[in-house]
Design goal:
The protein is α/β, with parallel strands linked by helices. It has helices at about 15-45, 50-60, 80-85, 345, and strands spanning about 45-50, 95-105, 110-115, 120-125, 135-140, 145-150, 160-165, 170, 185, 190-195, 210, 235, 255-260, 280-285, 305, 340, 355, 360-365, 375-380, 385. The protein is about 15% helix and about 20% strand.
Length: about 400
């Protein structure tokens, strides 16, 4: 009897691994593909909360504006760019909203961002905003909004950014702003407010940027601002702030930019500013009753923007031998009533080409050395003495 056997050749191990890999690859590919289609379809079927839809409609009616073509497709606000996550800051998408449609099993949307920017809209701040309780971002800069900033703004407790700059809002700044403890950026610049800064703003411990230029308020910076240790940028120029520049600002060690120009502060600049080692931009001017040094700047190695207006028209005795390298950006120190001698370090700064020290009260002799890059020097109307150093005959314009 003949017996036959069918022998099946064993598959190569690499072939099995390759087949298994491609199987799982295509499985997961189609799984996530259909999952994304499902979520997209769900997002398209989700609708804006009716109370928010009514509020948004009323706000736009009062401001005489209408939705951009990139959203509010077929009458549903939370469509198009409002849910795509792109184009919110696009110039063509103005006014703009962003919706979060993950509520109630992805059937309900809430507005999280609202921008009505530079559209010359008029009117006041409507109370219907309080219906938008999910807002994290509200930017209505550069319009003609008038009237007070209502206290109900403090009910928008999820706000992280509030920008109302370049309008014509008036009255006092409501203390209820201090309820917005999630704020990281607050901009109130260029309005017509009155009174003083509310102490409650010191509750905004997450604040990283504060813009309060030309907003109309005055008085002293509240002591509660000592709590704002996350501050990175503060612009507070052209306001009648008075008193001394607070010493506690020296504890804002994350600060990168500070501007106090055109105020009514008294000097001196606090020595605690030496701790602001992250500071890259410092502009201070118009201090009263100043008689001190700027020795604190020696430790500010990151400073690249130091305005000469910092000592404009005030009496400073600043020229000491520890002037740091960044001082190369100071070009004109004329008419500042500077006193003391001229340090050698100032003339040896490698990038300084023009130096104007005229009309001060500087004394002593001229430095014996200067850098080759320094080509123009004005030392007129000072109280210098001694003989000219050899570099005066080197073709320098003196």
């Amino acid at each position: 009897m003949k017996m036959s056997f069918n022998v099946k050749r064993a598959s190569h191990p690499l072939h099995l691994v390759s087949t298994t890999f491609f199987f799982f690859f295509f499985f997961f590919f189609f799984f996530f593909f259909f999952l994304s289609l499902f979520h997209g379809s769900t997002a398209q079927n989700a609708t804006l909360d009716p109370s928010e839809a009514a509020a948004l409609n009323s706000i736009f009616q009062q401001w005489e504006t209408q939705s951009a073509a990139l959203w509010n497709i077929s009458g549903e606000p939370c469509t198009g760019s409002a849910i795509s996550g792109t184009g919110f800051e696009d110039g063509a998408n103005n006014p703009a909203i962003t919706c979060d449609c993950t509520y109630n099993n992805s059937t309900t949307c809430h507005i999280t961002q609202l921008r009505v920017y530079a559209l010359n809209r008029r009117g006041g701040i409507p109370e219907e905003l309080t219906a938008l309780t999910y807002l994290t971002f509200l930017k209505i800069d550069q319009n003609y909004f008038t009237g007070p900033l209502p206290s109900f703004i403090g009910n928008l407790s999820k706000l992280q950014l509030l920008s109302l700059a370049h309008n014509a809002l008036s009255g006092t700044i409501p203390m209820e702003l201090g309820n917005l403890k999630e704020l990281t950026m607050l901009s109130l610049s260029s309005n017509n407010f009155s009174g003083t800064l509310p102490t409650e703003l010191g509750n905004l411990v997450n604040l990283r940027e504060l813009y309060i230029n030309s907003l109309g308020v005055g008085g002293e910076i509240p002591s509660t601002f000592a709590n704002l240790k996350n501050m990175q940028v503060m612009r507070a120029s052209d306001c009648p702030f008075s008193g001394k520049i607070p010493d506690f600002i020296g504890n804002w060690t994350k600060l990168t930019s500070l501007r106090f120009q055109g105020n009514s502060f008294e000097g001196p600049i606090p020595s605690s500013f030496s701790k602001l080692t992250s500071l890259s931009s410092l502009r201070i001017s118009d201090l009263f009753n100043v008689s001190s040094s700027l020795d604190f700047i020696k430790d500010l190695k990151n400073l690249t923007d130091f305005s000469e207006e910092c000592i404009d028209h005030r009496k400073y005795s600043i020229l000491h031998k520890g002037i740091p390298e960044f001082a190369k950006i100071v070009k004109d120190l004329s008419f500042n009533n500077l006193t003391g001698g001229i340090p050698n370090a100032l003339f040896e700064l490698g990038s300084l080409a023009n130096l104007f020290l005229g009309n001060n009260s500087l004394s002593g002799t001229l430095p014996t050395q200067k850098s080759e890059q320094l080509e123009n020097i004005d030392l007129s109307y000072n109280e210098l003495s001694g003989s000219f150093p050899s570099w005066v005959a080197s073709g320098l314009k003196l």
